Fold HTH psq-type domain-containing protein.
Amino acid sequence: MPPIHSESSQKLVNQEGRILLALEDLKNGRIKFIRAAATLYAIPRSPLQHRAVGRIGRVDMRPNRYKLTQLEEDALTE
């Protein structure tokens, strides 16, 4: 039996793609309302709304367990 987390990660990738498509349609004016875009693309409204105002997606965030920022790590490795 395959691990469960791979299925959920695949679901997250699919949702991220739909969020990006919805944001593009909102930006280009093809869809006027966030709620309509969320319904059309079958994604939750709140993540779409947060991304529309500039919040970084979870996929693009650095995990909390790191002690140094990416910039600090790069400075140490040079």
Observations:
- The mean pLDDT is 87.
- The chain has one domain: 4-77.
